[in-house]
Amino acid sequence: MDRITKAFLEAEPKACEDQVAIFCAEWPDGMDITEENILRCIQLSLDVDWFMSEKAGAPAWAEYYKAMAPAWEEYYKTKTTAPAPAWEEYYKAMAPARAEEYDKATASAVVRILKAVGE
User: Where do the structural domains in the chain lie, given as residue ranges?
Assistant: First the structure.
């Protein structure tokens, strides 16, 4: 897979209308799959997890899940043990690092996996 289009997002299983609207406002003619564009999807709060699980296909989802599992495990372990005020401080403190590291790692994994699906 090298490109995502509005038609692809509107085919079954369909992306939510609001997600399609955000996508089309940014990429009216479709989007090439690049790390920069996937990172932009994340910044726009497009649901990359849903896309990988529902639109990219089972092999891509399995590969994505495997790549993201360690980060998700740590996230959920911490979230279930820390009190709510601590989470507010955590989000404030981690926002810059998340954009720098987690989102970039996610974008890299998505691009690698989607490009492999098309081969």
Answer: 3-117
What pTM was computed for the model? 0.71
Q: Give per-residue burial for 29-62: e unless 16+ CB within 10 Å, then b.
A: eebebeeebbbbbbeeebebeebbbebbeeebbe
In angstroms, the first-to-last Cα distance of the chain is 8
Q: Render each residue's pLDDT in the chain as its tens digit; 119 residues.
A: 899 999 999 999 999 999 999 999 999 999 999 999 999 999 999 999 899 889 988 888 888 888 888 777 776 776 677 666 766 776 676 666 666 777 888 888 888 888 887 65
| Residues 7 and 55: beta-carbon distance below 8 Å | no
Q: What are phi and psi of 4, to 5 degrees?
A: -120, 135
Q: What is the DSSP letter of 33?
A: -
> Whole-angstrom Cα distance, residue 33 to residue 6?
14
Query: CA-CA distance, 90 to 88, in Å (whole number)?
Result: 5
